[in-house]
Amino acid sequence: MIGRLNHVAIAVSDIAAAAKIYSGTLGAKVTAPVPQPDHGVTTVFVELPNTKIELLEPLGENSPIAAFLERNTSGGVHHLCYEVEDILVARDKLVAEGARVLGDGNPKMGAHNKLILFLHPKDFCGTLVELEQV
Ligand code: CO
User: Fold this and answer.
1) For the whole model, what pTM was predicted?
2) Gap from CA of 125 to ligand 1 centroid (Å)
3) Secondary structure of residue 92 in the 3-state scheme
4) Which of 89, 107, 123, 134 has the most CB within a 10 Å radius?
């Protein structure tokens, strides 16, 4: 059911420093930082030939990644995003299999204007999973 790996998200406390590691040390192409106030994060995308890395820095008071960074002070892998063709079909199948969808269970418009939802890490090998409809 899941398709391509759309991105791996890494939470960081200093997105400029993280972008420099990817563009400088690792020699990758990175985008400029974009504040996403609706999502409580600032994002930078690292563009790789086969996927993307999404660097996330907390933005505002109630950032969804603040608690993660308190536990992982040097940053860390925050979630994996898999592509699906039809997010409602995927959601209904996963719920029928017993998986838990975070929030109210309905897809939301994500940072790239695509429908997304998040699945409970305890149901997926300890990893927060994002689904994105492509
Ligand atoms: Co993501």
Assistant:
1) 0.94
2) 17
3) helix
4) 107
59 CA to centre of ligand 1 in angstroms: 15
User: How is residue 37 annotated by DSSP?
Assistant: T
Confirm whether 70 is a catalytic residue. no
Tens-place pLDDT, residues 74-125: 999 999 999 999 999 999 999 999 999 999 999 999 877 899 999 999 999 9
**54, 57, 83, 130: which one is catalytic?**
130
User: What is the rounded distance in angstroms from the CA atom of residue 65 to the CA atom of residue 12?
Assistant: 9
Quick: pLDDT tens for 8-57: 999 999 999 999 999 999 999 999 999 999 889 999 999 999 999 999 99
Q: How many whole angstroms from 54 Cα to the centroid of ligand 1?
A: 7
The CATH-assigned architecture of domain 5-133 is Roll (3.10)
Q: How far is the CA of 24 from the centre of ligand 1 (A)?
A: 23
Among 7, 10, 20, smallest CA distance to 74 is for 10
